[in-house]
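Hi R.,

Here are the chain sequences for the assembly we discussed:
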Amino acid sequence: MKVKVLSRSAEEHTRQRSNDIHKLQRNLDPTLHPFEKAREYTRALNAVKVERMFAKPFVGALSGHVDGVYCMTKHPRQLDWLVSGGGDGDLRLWSLSEQKTLWATVGHKAMVTGVSSFLEGSRFLSCSNDRTVKIWDPTADSDDYTTTSSSSSTLTATSTSIKTPVATYTGKGAFSGISHHRSDNVFATSGSEIDIWNHDRAEPVQTLNWGVDTINTVKFNQTETNIIASTGSDRTIILYDLRTSQPVTKLILAMRTNAIAWNPMEAFNFVAANEDHNVYGFDMRKMDKAQNILKDHVSAVMSVDYSPTGEEIVTGGYDRTVRLFNARQGHSRDIYHTNRMQRVFSVLYTMDNKYVLSGSDDGNVRLWKARASEKMGVRDYRERAHLEYSEKLKDKFAAVPEIRRISHHRNVPKAIKTATKKKSIMINARKVKEENVRKHTKSENLAERIPERKKPVVGIKK
Amino acid sequence: MTEKMKKDPVLAVVPKYARGDSREALDSVNKLKDRKLKGTIKRREKHFKDAAYKAASAEILLTEEAGFLEPEGVEKTYQLSQASLKKDVDISTAHKMFTLDLKFGPYAIDYTRNGRHLLIGGRKGHVAAFDWQAGNLACELQLKETVRDVKWLHNETLFAVAQKKYVYIYDKTGLEIHCLRNHIEVNKLDFLPYHFLLATVGNTGYLKYQDTSTGQLVSEHRSRLGKCDVMTQNPSNAIMHLGHGNGTVTLWSPNMSTPLVKMQCHRGPITAMAIGHSGTYMATAGLDGHLKLWDLRNYKPMQEYFTPTPASSLSVSQRGLLAVGFGPHVSVWRDPFKTKQVSPYMNHLQPGSAVQDVQFVPFEDVLGFGHRSGISSIVVPGSGEPNYDALEANPFQTKKQRQEMEVHSLLEKIQPDMITLDVAMVGKMDKAPIQILNKEKKEAWAAANPEKATELKFKARGKNSSSRRHLRKSAKNIVDQKKVDLLERIENDKKERAKRRLNNPEEPVTALDRFTGKKRKL
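And here is the predicted structure of the full complex:
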């Protein structure tokens, strides 16, 4: 008779030296792993609880501005670099890693309404209500920086002294916004009209106008570099093409648009932060309806910015909160607030996709993590694998009520909570009323339903 | 398809690792209108398919192969005795065949989940825990009272013993940790390792679940079928099966006070029960001399065998062998569920000593059994799973690994309310109509927020005037002028009220009395 019996030797199944790693034999046979789903669910539940436990997004406040911070800009190439403009004409350059001012000046006699950086060096532009646009070069003030061994220059001064701009351009009226071309020495300013300036000319090279009294903001598309988007105080969004010097589209919304951000990955998409508490995503090729509506703010949205991946959106609102959205979803995935943060007028997503910045009325620039519970710094392989696994599990069980409840729960200020509640009651009441009207209208008089995404669009001109 | 399989032999193994039917899922997806959702689901299905394929192709890494007995010529496997088998096996396997002659029998036995440690409990109070392969004794106790059953808890550091009256928990040194006074006269213990639940059933007929991680008594169910000494768990869904004196088997979860399923299995009392590793097959034995094999998916009998004397104990091995202990015999059957077997796979006789408790050792080709005069261990080739998963149950576990696994298993403890007949239910959408869902939600809310029983207080109105309070508070035996005055005043008030009432019988005594319609006495 042939006989075979299982017989394992300890040497084969255990490590030989204490320095070796343990031998872990695996067998993926499902019968050896009972309750697979229940255990995964438990892990997902733990993961989501841990995530909420470690959700501490606030990194630090950059204080220095005496008045509110109304505009900020990041550098397309330098991660550490941030310029903010204050309500009293104060301009500051910050080092984000050290969280301190590198360079500061009182650049304008009135509120700084826009700052914009461009690829070349560490120069930046600022515009103000005092009818000037100035180009600044923080590294040029030789007494204020020391050159270190590395090729980059380190700036050390923090005193707000008067510095001389590299160039000054004077316009006809107050400027409300500025945006620099991606590669050329061209920038656009907004005010009573849109002016296109060349660095080398004292006068605007081009003036664009489409019957609007005031333009609020202007934004160059950084991919399709000749397209400009602007918003007017008459509730319009106008797109211009510099190659034809012609306006492309004029879109009229129900309420005023405060800010615009172009999608850095999909050049034809942009989002518009609206006064009606929503952010509208548009495709510039078919503007007759919004591609997406980002809801959740309970007051006007003042500022918006895309993450460099184009997948996430950060918004700052008049309701004193910063909200983070998945660009393809309709509701915010997170809300940031502090006791001391006032109305948020400018937000930015940093170029490493890891942090967001908010500049608010209280004069502080705040640095937040883009993912509230993310652990910063180096993670070893096992930790990373574990986090990825937890992430997948959370995704798998995201719809289970218990997990959804925990992951969606946020402690928000009472004002926001009551406002949200009130808003939802009002919206629901409006919906009910509309439905009731429809119910009691003869079918021949019944107007066609307007899709939710078409509702904000009042008109479009080409 | 077969051509494909010839080219890629992994494809034949893939179904074993597949979760659910992907073709069915894709069929339903194709009916969807939402293209985005369609894409997401299709992508996900592809991931599942890839995962199953990868798991199947990882089979190449499994080092061990299962044991077997292959008869040559006229040889029959059931004629092979342990003594002759001993000559053909290696020395370490030969060491696994042994008999311990112990005086305190009959013995109940239990192996840990990794098959490394053995716990024995003699009816007369002898309990011993040891690493049976290395021969290291962890502890030996003489409890001096009846021991009915023993059970390891989540690992080899703790075990439970069902003693004369209560259940006790001991640690590996033999120190008594807990006495579970809720569990009275327990006959059978079982432990659900992923839920940390100790289940007991005994003479009282109560099935009780105790959470060994928090110490809570999770639930107790009255079986209403009298004394019970047959209990086994379904390892795939943690449902407890109880075998009763009237021949029924009842299936229980901690969440229902009534059995989930009742099966009439035998005409006499049930004596033994065992459930296969995959949870699809159940074997029951009764005093009627039948041994029946059931399919737990439709609760129907598959095969029926006879035992010469009623079987006292059953056990199903990881690879589906069925061990039957009857009288002094142990017979092992191979593939008894799907096809009717005519002869057993192996036979063993323990002369003069009735078998009490048989149990296959996980990950070993060994069958252990407790009998009247001790415990024995015999080799049954092909019974154990050759390849263990070290993250689930590791026979070569170090102390550190054990500690780490303990922490992880506690973190991943499945809540008792997740025990259901269908394990795939977790995370599935509840497709019940909204009315039913709402009703359930309401009930759950009501259960979580019980209404406080507000007792109706009898308020004696007008009994607490300031003068009365003064009278009540002042010493009873002292009569001073003030007190006399007060008593007089109260008396006068009373008289005046009576007079007023007499003059005007319609006047209400209190504001609310106008609604009563009845005249109130003063």
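Chain B touches chain A through 66 residues (CB under 8 Å). The mean pLDDT of chain B is 91.

Let me know if anything looks off.

Best,
T.
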